[in-house]
């Protein structure tokens, strides 16, 4: 059997495909890990689609054969299970189908778009950094540099999320961009803590000088 994900471009739909390349009917067990950000409550719908069984017909001289185009069946509601892998910490699709010769099955898992950093979270961090420096009085060069880096990172996250929507770049790149944006956000949060530590040290030195 051959398995593989297919990108979706109009919505956050994760597609898992199994192909029977054989000329005989075959059972196809499917176990496919979902992205770690996806939980059962994020799943909107599940669907399953089968291609028609390929039929062969004679073309030209005797012995020449060509596969006829597969006639897809209408989409039907799927009852495939979503299970949790405790060891690896993710949910996965668990299903088994019986495929005819050269038949293809596609399992669709439609999920909420959980690969976006909420704008309010970005702006809250920006506001918190401004408030920290406002309370700290005179800003030293290190704190000023960190504030600038945080601002650049947050601006980049906003820009990235606008440019890498599912509709523009597809599911895979959208998820990859989210991972990079999360890393930038985490670094910005660490930089904020560094500013807090700098301000505490500065206050401590002022107290010692009195």
Please characterize this protein's 3D structure:
There is one protein chain. The termini are far apart. A hairpin with a 4-residue loop joins strand 8 (81-85) and strand 9. This protein has helices at 119-135, 141-163, 166-169, 171-209, and strands spanning 2-6, 13-19, 26-33, 43-50, 56-58, 65-67, 76-77, 81-85, 90-99, 104-111. The chain is elongated, with a radius of gyration of 26 Å. It has a 5-stranded antiparallel sheet with strand order 1-2-10-4-7, with no helix packed on it. A 3-stranded antiparallel sheet has the order 3-9-8, with no helix packed on it. It is α+β, with helices and mostly antiparallel strands and 210 residues long. 40% of the residues lie in helices and 28% in strands. The protein has 2 domains: 2-111, Immunoglobulin-like (Sandwich); 119-209.
What secondary-structure arrangement, pairings included, does this model have?
Layout: E1 2-6, E2 13-19, E3 26-33, E4 43-50, E5 56-58, E6 65-67, E7 76-77, E8 81-85, E9 90-99, E10 104-111, H1 119-135, H2 141-163, H3 166-169, H4 171-209
Antiparallel strand pairs: 1-2, 2-10, 3-9, 4-7, 4-10, 5-6, 8-9
Helix pairs in contact: 1-2, 1-4, 2-4
Beta fraction: 25-35%
Order of helices and strands: EEEEEEEEEEHHHH
DSSP strand tally? 10
List segments where confidence is low: pLDDT < 50 over at least 5 consecutive residues.
Answer: 1-10, 53-77
CATH fold field value of the largest domain: Immunoglobulin-like
CATH class of the largest domain: Mainly Beta
Query: In the CATH classification, which architecture of the largest domain applies?
Result: Sandwich
The chain-level structural class is: alpha+beta
The biggest sheet amounts to:
5 strands, antiparallel
Placed side by side, the strands forming the largest sheet appear as 1-2-10-4-7
Integer count of domains:
2
Indicate the mean pLDDT. 82
Rg measurement, Å: 26 Å
C-alpha geometry: elongated
Report, as a whole number of angstroms, the end-to-end distance. Answer: 77 Å
Number of helices: 4
Helix residue percentage: 25-40%
